[in-house]
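idk why but the lab printer keeps eating my pages so im just putting this in chat instead. protein + nicotinamide-adenine-dinucleotide:
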Amino acid sequence: MSEQNPFESLQEQVDDAAAHLDVGDDVVERLKHPERVLEVNLSVEMDDGSIRRFKAFRSQFNGDRGPYKGGIRYHPNVSRDEVKALSGWMAYKCAIVGVPYGGGKGGIIVDPDEHSEPELERLTRSFATELRPLVGPDRDIPAPDVNTGQREMNWIKDTYETLENTTAPGVITGKALSAGGSEGRVEATGRSTMLTARDAFEHLDRDIADATVAVQGYGNAGSVAARLIEELGATVVAVSDSSGAIYDPDGLDAVAVKAYKNDTGSVTGYDGVEEMSNDDLLTLDVDLLVPAALENAIDADLAEDVSADVIVEAANGPLTPGADDVLTDRDVLVVPDILANAGGVTVSYFEWVQNRQRFAWSEARVNDELESVITSAFADLVDAYETHDLPSFRVAAYVVAIQRIVDAYVDSGTWP
Ligand code: NAD
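predcted complex ->
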């Protein structure tokens, strides 16, 4: 895994796309930095009565198109630059799918596996208390990310509502259904990964049903993507998690592997398969590769050995800019993260809309609306790619997204 700074990757991606746009350097510079970053040290009581300090961040990248929006991740490697990069990707992601939000992201430097549920609840409520002045249904709306889910979102919502003495389910998305969550939210990221994979194969005049697939990372995004792509008729031959990778050339059963991982905590040890390293999985001879773990999974060296024809980025930032250049030169079609995994934020937007309307949609409606948002965003991307003769789908996605943010900024005039 490369040590590439994700924030520098984001800035390079913006520069690459801005070179194809008629936008001044001053405006581009604005689009390469967050508007503000909160850094806090949380003091949290452990079960043994001791107090432990945890560093946490919230980056608000750009609010030109609406309230800041983005997940909160719990991971030992969280850093200020990682959170800043992720908040920028959120701004561009919201713009490409046309949901009226800016970008935000948060994280706590913590390994959740080392803590009990009561410790994690105190940690989460402590962060939510610090976030209180920054967040709100019209200000900044957090959501789940790596190692956080409905449980943490419910705690954050409850903390905010208690402190504000109100009910405001739209302060956070990714909640449990019982707490104002949306049907279809848990599956949304994997669903947009599947939809963009399907559209990418169609773009290449190929049938995804004939494809072999490898998925790196078998959490929320990866396991749902694997199941839904399998439902299109494709053969998922390899999946992995932080414990390693498993491979069966005849095809794995995506649902059974997920059930096994739920039981045992990892995909490795699954019966009747070959075990391999994550790097071996990433270079397997498959038609479709879905990186769905963390950023910088593929660097320029590894990219030389990638054998897939299509990469659909379920994870945020899984390719370094160097890897991107190599893969573009090698004509590998990469569907960029800001579109491929935008299902999560799109259904988060639907959840927020439902919360504000106090009216719940059916799962079928959520999935239909999601499909229409993602397929039309994919068509906008292809249109920009072909009209401006752009080098890659990633540049095309940023060209569309940057133009939309710039339009919102310029059309609003300048506040002195
Ligand atoms: P998750 O915690 O549910 O799953 C992450 C998976 O990656 C786990 O299976 C973990 O074991 C695996 N993993 C970690 N390090 C690994 C490594 N070095 N090699 C292989 N596997 C490794 O997280 P998630 O929600 O599925 O998020 C995964 C990615 O998708 C992240 O980049 C996240 O930002 C992105 N994403 C998630 C959502 C969402 O709604 N969940 C939305 C948009 C983007």
